[in-house]
Each structure stands twice: as structure tokens, then as C-alpha cells.
Amino acid sequence: MKPTCRTTSLLLFLAVVSWVPLHLLAQTHPVFLQLKGTGTGNRIIGAGTGVGIAGNFAYVSHSGGLEIYCVTNPALPVRVGGSESQSPANAIQLAGHYVYLALGPRQSITNDPGAFEIVDVSDPSSPVRVGYTNTYARANDIRVTCHHAYVAEATRWTGSNLLGALEIFDISTPSNPVRVAVFDTPGAVTSVDVSGNHACLTDGVTDVQVLDVSDPGHPSRIGIYQPDLSRCAFEPLGPADYVQLVGNLAYSAGGNGLNVLDITNPSQPVRVLDNTCIPIYSLQVVGHYAYMAIFHSFLNTFILHVVDTSNLTNWVPVGLKADWPPVRMEVVDNLIYLATDPLLVYELSDRPVIQSISKKDGNVTLVWDYAPGFVLQRTTSLTDPFWTDVPDSVDQNTIDLPAIGENQFFRLARP
Q1: Contact 276, 293 (CB under 8 A)
Q2: Residue 399's domain spans which residues?
Q3: Of 331, 349, 367, which residue sits at a domain end?
Q4: What confidence score (pLDDT) does residue 319 get?
Q5: How many domains is the chain built from?
């Protein structure tokens, strides 16, 4: 019997009230980021490398294998199961009731081979490895479409030179993956995505290659994109590390920033947006929005940015969080799941977050995210609330107030 998630309800006195609108990012004003939940009951799993969400469960790949969390209540993700892999898991892909893991140790002077494995997660509390096969080199990324797995691999020594590769496997029988093709590349393949008859990959040399995979057993390169880096005022960090296909657009991101390519004619990719010279450490595109982690050297932290791809010139800053590593993310509605140790869940909101409320000597002290144009409001009842503006709270981020009665409830709103 497939298990269901069980969560424990906790009744608290709340002094913060907020709502998240259905079409959060359709607004033109800034949105905000707040920590909503942290995975509980997990083992020490090492660095997270990938995350996928299916139904009420989050699947996290890491240096030791796979962890599975129940996220019915995103504020309290609870570990329900996991499995160990024979070598570090570098990426994850979900398809049906299977999880596919790209495996392999960090590249060494011997260019050790990698692998990928197939895990049956029909029962998330008891995942079972059903398939496994070696790859020529460390497996960096994996995509699954229909009956084939596309594995992006680091470089290997061929006897005469170092070559990366995209390996393609027939996974019609999960217990017996069969290699059907190897497509060599000049550099290590760090990311791959597949849509229809086309695959795009990043190989650290040519930024993005477009392949015809209408016959998975005979892939062929039909297009290539190499950005013009001459506009950079400094040396960029290198070609793209991530690529994602959405319709006729290919989003590539890495040391040279974000490039959005129109591949309607796959033999001639056309750049429709670029943000050259701003390194991007993580990328996911959902609907009309691209979510990116960018390191801000002055603030010494990572900033999450959102690009509204329906208006490619409109960059919307979402928020910034200290100590946020460049990890893979999965965005579902207004929640962002981060592949960290433990699993972290952030929430996008249309209003700043009240960070703390404390009471001392008859006064209440509040601290919230600074956001121009917002005013602090309070009420003494949520049954029939009458919200009043707190004087001198516009364009502030902290205030001391006299305590009023037994209960006070606060929110941030636009005047």
C-alpha cells in the first residue's frame, strides 16, 4: 500500500498575518522571499545536488544517495525514506514512479567512470534500486523522455585526448538499461535538456549545442551557439553550466550570465536576451519566469532574481538570503525547494516579512524586511479585524510600540 503523508498540527499564538495572492508574480511591485520550512528527521546526508517534487513528496539527491521528504505541509517537511548510492549522486530526474540518479566521484587524474541508477519509489518510505549501469565518465546530469535517458558526462581519457560525452540509454526495461549512443564533445557536459526531437547541452567550450535526437541511437549536432564575450569589461567565468528548454526557447546560464535563445530554426539559434558578465549559479524556468541565483560580491551573499520572460527586459528582484549556496532548486507555485542539507523551503510573498516580535517592559518591538511604500498595521482581534496604520512606520523596518491589551496582531500593507 502506498503511504500517505501524516503531519502534526501545532497551534500557536500568531502575531503576524499575511496572504499570498494566486498570481503573485503578475504584479509589477517587488516580491519577497522568506524561509517557510526546513526538512526534519533527516540523516546527515552531505551536500544536496538536486531536487524534484512529485505530488506530496520531495526527492533530494546528495553526495550519499537519495532522501525523500513528505511535503504535504511545506512548513514541516518530514523525511520518510532514502537510499544510498554506490557513488555520489550529482543530479536527479523524476519520471513516473522512478527516480533516476546521475552518479560519479569528482573528476580525478584517472578520470574515473560514473554511473546512473534507477530507483523505484512507488513506496516512498522504502525506495528500491531496480536498475544500474556504468557510464564512461562521471555523470553530471540526466534527463529522461519516453524510453530513453540522456546522461551528461565529464571528460574521459580516450587514449589520445580528453573528451566529454552525452550518452543515451534505452530504459524500456528499467532493470536493464542499454547504451544506444555516445555523442562526444570537446569539453565536459554539465547540463542537458530534451524536448521533442531536440536536445541541448552545455559542454564548457561551445556554450550550447543543439542535437537532433529524433533517432536516439544516432544523435547529430545541427546547431551551435557561442556568445560574444567582447562586451565584457572583465574576463567572464566561462560558458554556460545550465540549459533548459521551454517551447522554442533555450535558456542557458553560467559564468557569462543568462542567454535566451530562439531555436525555432535549431540550426541557427538566435539570441533574444542576454545578461552577459553576471555569473549565474543556479537556474530554473517555470512558466513565464526564470529563477536565478546570482552572487553579489559587495554584499557577499546570493540574490535570487526572477526574470519575467514575457517581457525580457524586466528584471524583478525577489530577495536576498545570506549563506545561500549555489544549489539546484525546484519551483512549485509560490514555493521554492532548495537541494540543501537539510531540505529548505522558501515562500514567495507579495509583502515583506515581519522577522521578529518581542515584548519587554510594556513595549512591543517589531523588526521586518525593509520595503519602501509599506506601512505597519495592527488590530486587537482577528474575528472582526479593524486594521489601523501604525504612525511613522512607512519606509521603516523596525519600531517600538506600547503594548495594548492582551493580544495584538500585525501585518504589512500598502497605504
Answers
A1: no
A2: 354-413
A3: 349
A4: 64
A5: 2
Q: What span, in angstroms and rounded, lies between the C-alpha atoms of 207 and 238?
A: 8
Q: Which of 34-48, 95-109, 173-187, 383-397 reaches the highest mean pLDDT?
A: 173-187
Give pLDDT tens digits for 355-382.
888 888 888 899 987 777 889 998 888 8
End-to-end, the C-alpha distance of the chain in Å comes to 53
CA distance 274 to 76: 38
- 392 shares a domain with 345: no
Same domain for 342 and 360, yes or no, is no
Express each pLDDT in 245-281 by its tens digit. Answer: 998 999 999 888 888 899 999 999 998 877 767 788 8
| CATH number for the domain that contains residue 262 | 2.130.10.10
Q: Do 312 and 250 lie in a common domain?
A: yes
The pTM is what?
Answer: 0.84
Model pLDDT for residues 293-343, shown as the tens digit of each residue: 887 666 667 778 787 777 766 666 666 665 666 678 999 988 999 988 778
Write down which residue in 328, 349, 370 finishes a domain.
349
d(CA 31, CA 43): 33
Tell me which amino acid residue 188 is.
A
Residue 19: inside a domain, yes or no? no
